[in-house]
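User: I'm putting together notes for a lab meeting next week and I want to include a structural view of one of the chains we've been expressing. I don't have a solved structure, so I'd like a prediction I can at least talk through. The sequence is below, exactly as it appears in our construct file.
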Amino acid sequence: MTEAARPPSSRPGPSGVAWALFAAASLALGAWPLIVHSQMKDYPTWYLVGRAVLDGAPIYPDAGHAPLRFIYPPFAALMLAPFSLGGLRAMILALAAITAVSWLIAVRLCSRLAGLPPPRSWWLLALPSVLVLPEIFDLFDLGQPNMMLLAMVLGGLALLQQRREWSAGTLFGVATALKAFPATILFYLLWRRRWRAAAAMSALTALCLMLAPAPFRGLDRNLGELRLWAQSMAPTAGGFGQRAAQNWGWKNQSLIAVTHRIVRPVNAEAEAPAVAPLTLNVLNLSYAQANLVVLALALALGGAFALLLPAEARRTPASDGAEYALLIAMVTIASPEARSYYFVWLLFPFAVLTLHAALDPSARVRRGLWAAIGLAAALSAVGAPLGPPHLPQALGNMFWAGLVVIGALGWLMRRTAQPNSSLTDSPS
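Assistant: Thanks for the context. Below is the predicted structure for the 428-residue chain, given as structure tokens.
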């Protein structure tokens, strides 16, 4: 067949290239944990907990004499139970498939929520995933649910944008009951006066935690296990979640952990006793004093976020996209425990930034946004498997990458909220 005779549909369009790459990456990443499942990542823990629910055994058998191996609430254990019916390998396959489907949903919602025309070039569609590909790999490798939680939260934001507040709050609530860190979304809903969404989120979180496991575990038993989990995860004089070494070690890239490592003498290599201690504090504060610094920084960041939010009358689809992306980035660094795979949530912020970097009519703005994306990517990459000593990670390379993204999105949100911005439509 000559070139002139070849039908136009015989070559995939730009989006077809992106989806082909997505399918290939999903198959490769999904196969990885099946090949190396014997290396004892989180999958065996999920399997044992799921079997405990099916067998009526305790979810937290190590309570009282050792740190909990399973650090999620009973509702999360209940959700794992069906996947343990077919054995460990079947569970790995099912959870990897859920991560892949969640990834696909998240990518589609990123384009929808950005508030700009969808990308026409395949690389614009693929670039945000490439920027967080190491974190995506970690999710498949470990079996962590953060991509699923991102898809749920993005779905909730899409429903919120459509004023379907009860449905949005339901998704936020279920996500919070599975893994507690999305709980900070509630403060955003209250500030934006989305009362029904806030009520639904609170009600569904409580329902999932206190009542959903009751038909299978018994109400009294579930409440007892929930109480045990809450007590185990509560802050203590040395940290939180029964894992003092992990709280302050280099793997934790949260605002709390990075601040503690900078203002008080904690060993960033505490998770590996055989490795020489690493401290990098510039102050010598006590634990309580460091917590006051954390509180001040959290209030400053939260207050700046609230003050930057445009008034309802000045909101546009593009400013909403930047606002939602900013919320996602803030939730990520606000989590007490924010290991590198938590930063897969930057998928949406990167999607918003790359679209604006490609479509903004101002060359100066495009250059500035590409510079911010490049800086955030460089900060993320500098912690690639280096060390010990893990100096870049101990300094909080992922945390600072998140702050760069937050700064760029805050500026972008204000810019696109201007009524005369050439990038925005009229407020919906």
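A couple of points you could mention at the meeting. The chain is about 65% helix and 0% strand. Residues 1-13, 420-428 have pLDDT under 50 and may be disordered.

User: Perfect, that's what I needed.
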